Amino acid sequence: MGREEFAESVRKYRDTVFRVALGYVKNVYDADDIAQNVFFKMYKKQKSFVTEEAEKAWLIRVAINESKDLLKSAWKKNASDLDESVAAPSNGDTGLIDYVKGLKPKYRTVIYLFYYERYSSKEIARILKMPQSTVTTQLNRAREQLREIITKEENRYGEALQRNV
Prior knowledge:
CATH topology of the largest domain: Rna Polymerase Sigma Factor, Chain: A
Number of helices: 8
CATH architecture of the largest domain: Orthogonal Bundle
Distance between the termini: 65 Å
C-alpha cells in the first residue's frame, strides 16, 4: 500500500472508524487515539484489500477490538473522564443519537452499523464475527429499548406540559 492509497483510505474511512470507537468508549479523545492506532496498524502491516467493502470491514473490526482493549485496560478502569460529550453524526439526528448513546455498547454498535453505515445484518455478522441471528436479536432489543426510552421521555414531556397549562 502506497502513501497515496493510504491517504485515500484515511480520508474515506476516518469518520467511520472514529464513530465506531466513539460508540464504545464515549470519549472523543480516546476515540481519536483509537482511530489513529487503527490506521497506524493498517499502514504498518501494509494491508491491501480486494474490495473497498473488505477494507472498511477490516477497519471497523480493528476499531472495535481496539476500543474493547482500551475499556479492559487498567488505565481506563481507574481513570475518570474529563469530557463526557459525544459528537453526533451531522445528519440532524442529534436527539436520537442522545438516546442511542444510552444503550449498551453491543447495541450501539449494531445500530450504528445498520442505520448509519447501511450494512445488512448479514454483513454486520461477518464484521463482528457473530451469528446473524445474534445481530438480528441485538437490533430488535436495541430498537425495543429505544422505543421504551422515547416513550418514557414523551410521557415525561407530556406530564410537564400538563402541569404548566
